[in-house]
Amino acid sequence: MERKRKSRCAKIFLIIMLGVITLSSSMHAQSGTITVKGNVKDSNGEPIISGSVVVKGTTTGTVTDLDGNYELKAPENGTLVFSYVGFTSQEIQIAGRTSIDVVLSEDAELLKEVVIIGYGSVKKEDLTGSVTAISANSLAKGMATSASDLLIGKAPGVSVVTDGGAPGSAAKIRIRGGSSMKASNDPLIVIDGVPVDNTTSINGMANPLASVNPNDIESFSVLKDASAAAIYGSRASNGVIIITTKKGSSGKPKINYNGTFSISSKTDDIDVMSADNFRNFVKSKYAEGSSQVNALGTANTNWQDEIFRTAFSTDHNLSVAGAAGNFPYRVSIGYTNENGILKTSYMDRWTGSVNLNPKFFDNHLTVQLSLKGIYNTNRFADTGAIGAAAEFDPTQPVYNSDSKYGNGYYMSLKEDGTPIDIGLANPVATLNQKRDASRVKRSIGNIQFDYKMHFLPDLRANLNLGYDISNSIGWISIEDNSPLSWVTGNFKTGFGENRDYKQLKRNQLMDFYLNYVKELGSHKFDVMGGYSWQYFYRSESNIYPYSEAKQNEFGALYYKDGDSFKTENYLISYFGRFNYTFANRYLLTATLRNDGSSRFSKDKRWGLFPSVALAWRITEESFMKNQNLLSDLKLRLGYGITGQQNLGTGDYPYMAKYQYSKPGANYYWGDEKVQLIRPNAYDSELKWEETTTYNIGLDYGFLGNRISGAVDLYYRKTNDMLNEIPIPAGSNFSNVLLTNIGNMTNKGIEFNITARPIETKDINWSLSYNVSYNKNEITKLAEDPTSIFRWGGITGGTGNQVLVHKTGQPYGTFYVYEQIYDTDGKPIEGAYVDQNNDGVIDGEDLRPYKKASPDVYMGLSSQFSYKNWDFNFALRASFGNYVYNNIQSNREAYGGAWLMDPTGFLKNRVSSASDTNFSQAQFISDYYIQNASFLRMDNISLGYTFLKPFKGLESARLYATVQNPFIITKYKGLDPEFNNDGIDNNIYPRPRIYMLGLSLNF
Question: From the CA atom positions of the chain, what is the Rg in Å?
């Protein structure tokens, strides 16, 4: 059924594209054609050079010459459109005239672009904080299945890294680096006025931002500094991203269809030995007749080829926008079927949205109703199969029908013929015999009433009622007698350790504020004050059933007891903002928010978060009036304090809590088994993390904003940072306690520029570039400045960790030995620098070395069009980031149990094992800390737009896109970009995607 459905979708898609290409209507008969001449000037009488003059509704046109003159042939009853960058376009009816002169006025609206901010909007020219506004037209081209995909590389200081290439994969978003070690570093996400809960994930849905169809998004506003974000108080330490969806407008209905068909394939393989190379390698290290050589098989299996595939995906979106009387509306429906390159992984998603924005009472009352819904089904492939495929013996077959174990799949057996319970699971069996599926329903909506008082039009009252509800169910089932049932889990006795789960999340919101705006001569006042109430509820439950066969065999439904819990928290806030403008040149913004969170004790519950910002619009000064070079120059200064209440420790971190003991830790009261409970460590004095930010920025524009951008410098300091510290035995219920003790700083510079180098009748070219530099440092970790905290567990060995928190070092610093090399540049096994010269290599010789986060992050995008053709691309680069190559460190050594486990099975090695020639694994060597700087082409797109190809169809754009076509890097692993704290292991690789797309506008 699934294959037939995909085939039908592909056929329908191809038929539509073929119809657009082959269908065309006859040209409408035009009235008489005449020659029209004229001159185009600006308001100062200067000629407009290379201005565009086009016959409306056609591609017929010309450009003005050096004197502003033009000449073209046009229908005598047609309309001419005059336009030039930085000026307001004009439409003039010809009405039989042969001479038409035009004066174009500077487009003041370019600077008056409305930017959405917290609890309102502001003209771009009046912004005082560091805010990046991204419109739908400039969003990333390519296969986007979530809102986060559109942001990649588009804003300075904003890093978006997806969790590999899995369908619907989540993304890690960082704004100006992280500000916490133990609490969340994710920015606050606000969707159409509803702050969503991204502290806890939605079970069964990898990326919560996939709830919003990318085709429905109108714009992003990224609030980066405290003066812009402090209006959100306790949740704004990591910045704020405001997502605004498209709405209806007056006029006849407009129908839009967007569809894509894509093919995904893997870009490369982990460089492991082939079967023949592996045989030769084993025989070169061990004698003929040894257990290692005797364990070699006769097969030639490429396990990576066995688990990956070429995948086909489709995406469709249909929207209708217009107005029904006094009711502007927009309705859309979308369907996405995304199949992953790792076999069995897929996402099937339906989305729908409704936006209504009518006005009543002579436009005094504006109502905005926004509803979004999603129905999402997933199958998650076990990514452990990726690591297993890089290590499983390539001389063994995929299948083995001679064994009663494994359900026909090969698996390692002991000498007595029973499974090796610490063996590797057959990666193909892992994918086919484990089903991890989910179904998620989610709805986000709000209704907002904005009333402009009849008796005082300068005063507005705004009430926003919103919700975000999700309901998830999931099933994780493992076939009985599968390789997984024998080598993984808690029992390893051949039955599938299954789990069924449910989750319900509710987020309810009420915001109310009053806004008073008044202009008195050269003075403008904008005062806002309000109240916010938000409630978060979450319930989860798990049951652990046997398969039906095992239920009949054991006479029991479940192999262990189920569990469940419910939790909730409240956030109550009072907030205000004061904007003052003098002479349209000098601007002041001050905000204050008082947050109360139920996550803290009554004595620590409330936090006050102020901010202030100043701006000077230099181009409005009298001494700038007689120049034409600078169209915008604004200096900004900002200061503010934001908080962090998403602690990552549940909703009651300050309270004494008890939890049930682990299975088996029971007490018997007679014949009755009683499960024990034990206390958890807690700190009743927990409080907010607070981040103080200083920002200085300069907005600029040249030549009527044909070139524009901004430069920002910032300094951020986080105080009372949460950190786990060791505590004396007996002082609490653990030897480690989470408490407020650390400090951290981030400082950096951001630069962005947008230019339109060419703007003519036939050719238009827009370039955008952004670059950011960030330096992170932990300035306090504990009362003892010499304290260190190791973390970052790796695969291989027992308890090995390669990351460290240390005062004076960046977050995510690696902590390793300094490798010594021979004269040929090869690492010498076990030879490390004795850092303290005590003659012993031990933990005292470990050193902080490199870090996972980049120093510099940049993005470049280009949009070029020639007549009806368009060509677009987006590049990204990251410099100064390093990776611990755990795949290499865990698969190079050949001695002892590294090549052959004592229980009797071989493990494949990476090809570099022949070069390093390590007998024993060198996990903590800086040899495996590798430069992961990269330059990646995110996407390249080529399209052609048909104008009015047939009656009723305004335009049709057919395009082809390649996503992830290439990456340039020195990194030795598969991909230098991933989310795992800089440790490369079992990462779902990003595919290369070839896509055909079609956009229709009716």
Answer: 32
